[in-house]
Amino acid sequence: MSDSPSSYGMSRPDVGADGIPAFARERFGLDASVSELGSNQDRNFLLAGADGRRHLLKVDNPVFRAEEIEAQTRGLQHLAVHGVLAPEPVPGVDGAMLQPLDTPAAAYRARLLTFVEGVPLADAVRLGHHDARRLGALGARLDAALADFAHPGLDRHLQWDMRRSRAVIDELLPSVTDTALAERLRRAAETAWERVQAVASGLPVAPIHGDLTPDNVVRTADDRLAVIDFGDLALGWRVAEIAVTASGLLTRADGDAALALSAVQAYAEIVPLTPDEVAALWPLVVLRGCVLVVSGMHQGALDADNDYVQERLAEELGVFETAVSVDIDLAAATIAGLLGHDAAPPPAGPFTPMIDAAAVMIDLAPESPLMAGGVWRDGDGARERLIAAHRSPSGAVALPHGRPDLTRAQPLGDAPPSNVPLGVAVDLPPGTIVRAPCDSEVTEVAPDALVLGFAGTAVRVHGIAPGVSAGRVAAGEALGRTTGRLRVVWSPAAAPQPPEWAAEPWATGWRRLTHDPAALVGLPALPPSPTARAEGERKARVFAAAQEHYYAQPPLMVRGWRSHLIDSTGRPHLDMVNNVSSIGHAHPRLTAAVARQLDTLNTNSRFLYPQIAQLSERLLATIPSGDFDTVLLVNSGTEAVDLALRLAMIATGRRDVVAVREGYHGWTYAADAVSTSAFDNPHALDSRPDWVHIADAPHPLRGVHRGPAAGEAYLRDLRAQLQGLVDAGRPPAAYIAEPVHGNGGGVIPPAGYVAGAYEAVRETGGLAIADEVQVGLGRLGRSFWGFLDQGAVPDIVVTAKALGNAYPVGAVITRREIADALGREGQFFSSAGGAPASCAAALAVLDVLEDEALVDNARVVGDQLRRDLEALAERHPLIGALHGTGLYQGVELVTDREALTPAVWQTAAVCERMRERGVIVQPTSERQNVLKIKPPLTLTSEEASYVVRMLDLTLEEIG
Fold first, then answer.
1. Where are the beta strands (DSSP E) in 668-731?
2. How far apart, in whole angstroms, are the C-alpha atoms of residue 896 and residue 385?
3. Which of 380, 424, 370 is nearest to 402 (CA)?
4. Pairing of strands 557-561, 564-567
5. What is the pLDDT of residues 598-625, one digit of tens each?
6. Is the whole model's pTM more than 0.85, yes or no?
7. Is 824 exposed, middle or buried (0-12, 13-18, 19+ CB in 10 A)?
8. Which residues on adjacent β-strands are paired with residue 120?
């Protein structure tokens, strides 16, 4: 491109689509239909061949030198070696990459690239933080791959080179006819450029893509991200890469500038940013926004018929507005904090306490014991009651700086709460004397506040009637008397004035732009809140990689209450996946029962104590048929399944077992052997021991049989399979399955199948095992057990998980003649299985289920949920089917309702986006395209409605 600034902005090549088919045939040997794609400065044509292959023909703007175009070609070849998914250059029939394209208007150059099939990220209405992290990581991998790429054509003079952004803005600003907007652009650019220039000498220069935005990244069908359009490949400030990506994300952020920070974090995990780069990053985002606006308006004037340019202008204005809405110092501090850069320490003391009264600090952070029992839901009232409870006639109560206040949380909120206090608040009697903490300068005085300055910092004191004027004061000198609750805020004098409360992630920056005033008030500072990043790194050091966890960037959960999990930032998440906590998190009756029992007796089940019989009797009473009379207590669902299989084998004298495809039953040798889920174990189907035989899953939507007669067809197949085992001299000991297929997302078998399956296995002398670990204990809303819901009665029932509300307890329920068979192989006991505390937990769960009518609640709220989900399905074609009942439901997502093509990446994206909106939901099934909905049974109607509203918004954005 010309070195002259006046060349910024250009008209695209004057080439129409009419002559392109013949050109492609002659120069590249391609017979293809042609359609034009949008471009800011070139001409792009999509070539579709009869064989289904597609290519991109790019007619380059003649202002670019051949050397620059060659650098792009070599760069693409270089990236292909490094595994970056991008278009690949295709030579012409003569072997040359660049082919001449002569038109009456001018002589041009054209090149052919493979076409990367996918959907541009820019097609999304809104992108989420997970998308932003992926985009940031992609940019880092791209830059890491380009780091050793060199070519003379990289040294370019581009209007998009952020090193020249101020010159571009100055040159093109006259194109902005709105004088008020032009002045705002000028001032913003001036401030941002000054910040960049202050660190410019320390900014690394490297080859960068230069335009890695949602427009230039596509998501492939298998959920990979591919980079397209390398027209701005050049040398530039390395940090400009992520700054451009961040600004591009702001086009799909709906005004949420924090979206850009997620990309920055992911980038820096691969390509660490220096302190200078951190300081320059947000000013470069602002400058990019300015360049986009002035360039868009200038290009629009040059090329008024270019719809692509005109359509983008509103988005580009949005980038500018969102970028300048964030204070540059706050952005830099937030980025530095998120990346773990060291913060400057506050001035050291000693300090004279600002108040004479003895003060007690109370902590309202989510992990604080004061937040037990759900008191936080009362908001301001809870805070005031806690302050009053700790108040004494001569003392003061202080609330800490910088720690999230859970009483500020919104139980149902789609954004992080503004809950981090910036400063120490002290509740003390009106008229209390407030003193200067050290020799300092009173710089401002107001009717109810004053500001002290010392050592380059400012101390803002609110809630005081000043008794001094501006000027010097000595340490300990009286500044005035309190008029109400005192609030002391301490920050560097040059920092922006902090608000009273901040929300994450910006609270991370505000903590760096403030100091903890506890030392000034005369109190010890509380330790910082735990962070997800630190705990994640700690866990990774000691946990095996095979141990599962939710989310790529999991929040750090520190408290639970009813249907909510609360993370370390004080944000509540509606828990829609935790069927382990059946009666809700932190139920006070469960807590009291277990604590009471632990304080009394906890030992192993070989001793005699009443709780083990109490629990066994209560479990037997939940099955009205009277067919069961014996209970064996264990620690977990896995152990219960393992014991049930052993019982069946010993009682029948056989070893073969029939398990259902796509099931999961546990991780011990026997439980894993009958687990056939290919998601939990990709080799499940071809690695089963010879004593396990797999029956087809009776799936009414995806199974081998469908329609009204599916149930009987599945039974015919099962009977034939069982008879085949008998004929082979290997009659089955047992048939094991969930009565409702929980692992598939709550799939209900065809009517009559479960009862028929039990009857069929008994006819061969085998036993029927019902795995109720996931779906039992009233979760289905109509019966206490899934097998009762199916009108069937098994021989052995296994339960756990919800039985102890996450306290370790499981049970095997059966008949005495089956249980007594164990004696033929020796004695049985489980050291902690059925221990008094475990029994106390399970008894408390059964009491709460009954006393709070939670089974009825599962039915009522589950029915509401189903109606609302059915209404969603009418509006969102991504919903292919709904499964389950009560509070065990599944929302199956497909890209084609006829072909039932699993919407795998969309399901994962929904889960990530729902978490951003305060809802925890996870994928399940073999195909990982079913949203599993299995919340605590305490879920309310209001909470269910919130889930559906958030899912509606999310599907609108994704699907």
1. 692-695
2. 55
3. 424
4. antiparallel
5. 999 999 988 999 999 999 999 999 998 7
6. yes
7. exposed
8. 218
